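Posted in: Structural Biology > Protein-Ligand Complexes

Title: Requesting predicted complex, flavin-adenine dinucleotide in pocket

I'd be grateful if someone could produce the 3D structure tokens for the following input. Sequence and ligand are given below.
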Amino acid sequence: MDFMGYSAQEPEPALIGEFPATDAALSARLEAIDPEGYARSRNHLDGAVSRLSPYLTHGFISVPDVVTFLQERHGLHTEHKFIFELAWREYFHHAWTRIGDGILSSLRHPPGNGYRTEIPEDLLTASTGVKVIDSAVRTLYGTGYLHNHARMWLASYAVHLRKVDWRIGADWMYGHLLDGDLPCNHLSWQWVAGTLTGKPYLFNADNVERFAPSMASRRSAIDCSYDVLQHIAASDTDVGREAQQPEPIVPPPLLPLPAALDQSSATIPENRIELIHPWNLRSQTGHLRVLLLRDFHQRWPWSARRWAFLQDRVKFKGYQCLAADSSEIPLLLSDVEADALAADHPVYDKALLTVSRVRPVPRQFRNPESFCSSFSSFWHQVNKGHGAA
Ligand SMILES: Cc1cc2nc3c(=O)[nH]c(=O)nc-3n(C[C@H](O)[C@H](O)[C@H](O)COP(=O)(O)OP(=O)(O)OC[C@H]3O[C@@H](n4cnc5c(N)ncnc54)[C@H](O)[C@@H]3O)c2cc1C
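-- Reply #1 --
Done. Output follows.
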């Protein structure tokens, strides 16, 4: 069966290969940013978004470097919409550094009772029959990237209409995204579920029609008023799949650290090395080792597409890898003088802290000492005085 112009057995091809792991690709993305177009059209699926996220998540560039570029090139102020969105990223990272694994549990009372602990088969295989949702799942699998609005719609449908525990949905999406980032992803799912702010995010077919006209999904479960949606969201009943669905597709598997990157750590020839890691893959030279924590990736597997992105970066830059369990790091590096850059990544940072001289990660906005439970309190705090670090 042909669905929305592409074969049911294949991922949507549109964005495949759109994210080469190169400095040239990053530069092209930066050069293409159109701040005014962004401010006008960011919420539209075909709007002028930057698609910088895989490069930011993997540390090809830092948030302050993006801001400096935008200020020099376009004279942007810190109140500009683009920089405001980057502040959300830093807010989520602030939360992670302050409450650690707390981001993985509901910060407020979760919706419903005993929501699903597995993704329904039709959702997993992009065959719910709700056009915008099936398209999002196919795009996620086929490209590793989703527009922000598609992420919101997919998460809202999963939690509020299909009664999936937000945490299960978040883990699933995280593994398939090239920009999968635990605080941005899991706290965004909490925002949608209502466990971050107390208010669930709901959307209907009118909303989809406005921001993605070709995906409107009329005559489906989302084609109703917000009053009806609120009623559905407040109940424990799964609306189920639609009467008509496209052929299911096979979800790509999620994998732990692949053998090609799991390189032996037995010998470290230099007595002074610089450790970098998957969240800090900026262009750099020296006695570099890309540290890969097997236990982290065992717990948080990734798609083959994301591993290929990382592997390409390692290959293009000629980096060597150093794979180990977190607990092995102190012994492994006991005879080595090591420098490392932190990442606002508690698991990697903890492992790095067993190594001397960990430099703090560059931030655009300072990191408040105590946890700000809302973005607005964070924004208020970082903008007291001069705000930007
Ligand atoms: C359910 C859900 C899951 C998400 N999971 C992730 C994730 O795993 N990793 C991730 O980086 N972002 C995540 N986001 C946030 C946002 O959707 C993406 O950062 C954005 O869509 C990336 O595309 P872009 O680079 O084209 O964004 P642009 O709109 O061009 O924004 C530029 C940069 O600003 C930051 N940014 C923009 N919007 C947000 C936001 N709402 N929250 C945090 N940072 C933002 C990102 O670093 C982004 O690259 C998620 C959002 C939702 C609703």
